[in-house]
Amino acid sequence: MALLITAKCINCDMCEPECPNQAISLGDVIYEIDVARCTECVGHYEVPTCQSVCPIDNTIITDPQHPESRDALWEKFVRLHP
């Protein structure tokens, strides 16, 4: 699954620079994750860095609207980083 930033986001600016796929950007109100670019850090790190640096628990969650297998996330990583 891609990740989702919830309304708990405090716009602390911690997640955006940590994303290796440049999938995070500031939306109208809070930061947002581009599901076409989010690989949950598959191909880069063992765990999603945005979740690791977020100071608010359960703010960045798996997006139930965009289920993807680990293999699908890997394929997306390969497309983004040829």
Secondary structure layout plus pairing:
Layout: E1 3-5, E2 24-26, E3 31-33, H1 49-53, E4 60-62, H2 70-80
Antiparallel strand pairs: 1-4, 2-3
Describe the overall structure.
Residues 1-29 form the 4Fe-4S ferredoxin-type domain. InterPro entries: 4Fe4S_Fe-S-bd, 4Fe4S_Fe_S_CS, PSI_iron-sulfur_center, YfhL-like. Helices cover 20% and strands 15% of the residues. The protein has 82 residues and is an alpha+beta fold. The chain has one domain (3-80): Alpha-Beta Plaits, CATH 3.30.70.20. Strands 1-4 form a two-stranded antiparallel ribbon. Strand 2 (24-26) and strand 3 (31-33) form a beta hairpin.
Under CATH, the topology is which?
A: Alpha-Beta Plaits
Fraction in beta strands? 5-15%
> What form results from the Cα inertia axes?
globular
Number of strands: 4
Assign a percent range to the helix content.
Answer: 10-25%
- Integer count of domains: 1
> What is the string of helix and strand elements?
EEEHEH
Distance between the termini: 21 Å
Taking the sheet with the most strands, its summary is: 2 strands, antiparallel
Task: State the strand order across the main sheet.
Answer: 1-4
CATH architecture: 2-Layer Sandwich
- Provide mean pLDDT, rounded: 96
Low-confidence segments, given as residue ranges, are: none
Q: Regarding CATH, which class?
A: Alpha Beta
Cα radius of gyration in angstroms: 12 Å
Keywords: 4Fe-4S, Electron transport, Iron, Iron-sulfur, Metal-binding, Repeat, Transport
Protein name: YfhL family 4Fe-4S dicluster ferredoxin
GO cellular component, one term: cytoplasm
GO molecular function: 4 iron, 4 sulfur cluster binding; metal ion binding
